[in-house]
Amino acid sequence: MAHLIESMAYVGETPWHGLGNELAPKQPIEVWAKQAGMDWRIESSDVSYMANNDKGHNLILPFAEQKVLYRSDNFEPLSVVSQRYQEVQPREILEFYRDLTEQSDFELETAGVLKGGRKLWALARTGQSCSGQLI
Predict the structure, then answer these.
(1) Mind telling me which InterPro entries this protein's record contains (predicted)?
(2) pLDDT tens digits for 52-83?
């Protein structure tokens, strides 16, 4: 799976694959976004296709039910989805943790990009320890 990692950042122990940017604890979300490679946006565009008519002319026609998602930084396509699909921006993945890291004991542990931007992740420690007995 290490070959699918485009970029990542982490705090603490180096991941088993030895990839990524090591960060000091308690870094702001903005630093995580840059170091984890999540500082781009998902953009969308209408889908079109090319057809030839019986006179040999090329026609470019819309396919209104679909849209293509692509990266804002390198314009690489990510997927073709329905018009109803709602994108979650890479930055939004990290923003989910902002209040938890700033006001609670949560700490971001790792975040990154897989498969050219098709998969994004972020994980955090809760700051709570498990103690007690299993029954």
Answers:
(1) DUF932, Phg/plasmid-like_prot
(2) 888 888 999 999 999 999 999 999 999 999 99
